[in-house]
Amino acid sequence: MILQTLAFYLFACIAVASGVMVIAARNPVHSVLFLILAFFNSAGLFVLMGAEFLAMLLVVVYVGAVAVLFLFVVMMLDIDFIRLREGFMRYLPVGAMIGLVLLAELAVVIGGYFMAPEFGGPDGAMPGPTVGAITNTEAIGRLIYTDYVYIFQAAGLVLLVAMVGAIVLTARRRTGVKRQRAADQNARRPEDSVEIVKIPTGSGV
Amino acid sequence: MAEIFTDTLWPWVLFIWPWIKIPVLIIVIIVPVLLSVAYLTYWERKIIGWMQYRKGPNVVGWLGLMQPFADGLKLFLKETIIPSGANPIIFLLSPMITFVLALIAWAVIPFDEGWVLADINVGILYLFAISSLGVYGVVMAGWASNSKYAFLGALRSAAQMVSYEVSMGFVIVTVLFLVGSLNLSDIVRAQSGGFWNWHMFGILAPMGVVFFVSTLAETNRSPFDLPEAEAELVAGYFVEYSSFPFAMFFLGEYANMILMAGMTSILFLGGWQAPIPALDVIPGIIWFGLKVAFVLFFFLWVRATFPRYRYDQLMRLGWKVFLPLSLAWVVLVAGIVEFTGA
């Protein structure tokens, strides 16, 4: 038990410290790398809570895919650090307001859980995971594919719209680009394109 | 003498065993993996040599068997050069990340019935997560080197590994539909009773092929070794590395190859299971080793046979061939499982 407590404080401290470093680091690439460290430590916290499925999903989705693309973009951008610093004071009120809203929402959720825990859970008004012999992968699967299937599908639709939007914004038909058509290439036969000519000795073609 | 051991030493061993158990097991796994990495480089040169009518390494030691150690010693004695424009911390961190990621994944690999360090419920997801992190070593190395060749190699690698991960994920989903568990030992147990029960010889056969080709792309192996294409990028992301950081990249890459071969054998070739039940007397770890060696031979065979893909062809294969195919197979296998209740 003491080991778990120590592990919790280790993960939590590193997560918070790297979260601070994300906004404090001067180099944007360092910021993204600290963000990845923060993701990792949150995954560690999930494991400590026994939510190993969520921990692995966090690593696969956020660290393995989202942050890679993020890093990809940040590395290619030529960011002017001084101009970035100048904008800091101007955006501070908006940023602080968003932070406050998030904090209030977090307080509402956690406060609601502590004041009325019976609202969630298997017998509550909102269906919650059944605690028992099944693994938490199965518990999450049952929950999102039965009770919350419409919300789950709606989330999928939102992502689909975002994906279509990204493609529409970036795809443009360029003229004069030679494209490879693999099907056409494979459909070509030697007899269509190569001709064997018998040339009598002594005469040209 | 024997009494001294049984009376005084043995209780001490029993006393400290719970503390040293995990470190000892880790060493028991890591040392053979590193030895296999050393000899994989040997066999790669040997096999490609045979395929090209050469002899391969045959000078250092009997049949050239000491060649990997000579190479390792040579790399160890070289000077570690950090380019002046490089970011030294990230420059040195990235080979370590590659190396460590290649080793920690072995924690969940079942070598035989019950022979697994961490028998976790989400083993296959853990492997998938660790293998998807491999891109960081490459990308960070390319960026920290402050060199255009290294950077181009890193960008290629990032796009390539992210693309092929998607279809790998779907292939794993099709396997999970049939098995019904994310535990690697359960996946192997589901394929018991002979080679006709292995996933490679059933409805999942095309997925096995897709998975193997994706692992080639995921480990940056030929014909998908564009991140280190020597023809246009000198050596790609590790062009600025020398000495031991280079050796760590090298070891990490080959350990990843062995890991991917192990993953293929667990998912599709029945892991530690014997091909026919009568051969069960041979220990499972030998079967597992043979299967890993078999898949690794394919890695080397492909390298000696196929020319390198062009970059747009690589992306086409990943997004326009493998992704629709694996997605269709997910629907097909889900339908079969739903209607037959298998």
Structure description:
The complex is a heterodimer of chains A (205) and B (342). Chain A is built from 8 helices and no strands. Chain A is mostly helical and 205 residues long. Among the domains of chain A are: 1-89, Four Helix Bundle (Hemerythrin (Met), subunit A); 129-168, no CATH class. The model of chain A has no long low-confidence stretch (mean pLDDT 82). Chain B is an all-alpha fold and 342 residues long. Helices cover 68% and strands 0% of the residues of chain B. In chain B, helix 1 (2-51) packs across helix 9 (243-268), helix 3 packs parallel to helix 9 (243-268) and helix 9 (243-268) packs across helix 10 (284-305). Chain B starts with a helix and ends with a helix. The relative contact order of chain B is 0.13. The interface between A and B is medium-sized, with 23 and 28 residues.
Keywords:
heterodimer, A: 205 residues, mainly alpha, Four Helix Bundle (Hemerythrin (Met), subunit A), B: 342 residues, 11 helices, 68% helix, globular
Helix/strand layout:
The complex is a heterodimer of chains A (205) and B (342).
Chain A: H1 2-24, H2 28-48, H3 52-76, H4 81-115, H5 136-147, H6 149-170, H7 182-187, H8 190-193
Helix pairs in contact in A: 1-2, 2-3, 5-6
Chain B: H1 2-51, H2 67-77, H3 88-104, H4 123-144, H5 148-179, H6 184-189, H7 205-218, H8 230-233, H9 243-268, H10 284-305, H11 311-340
Helix pairs in contact in B: 1-9, 1-10, 2-9, 3-4, 3-9, 4-5, 5-7, 5-11, 7-9, 9-10
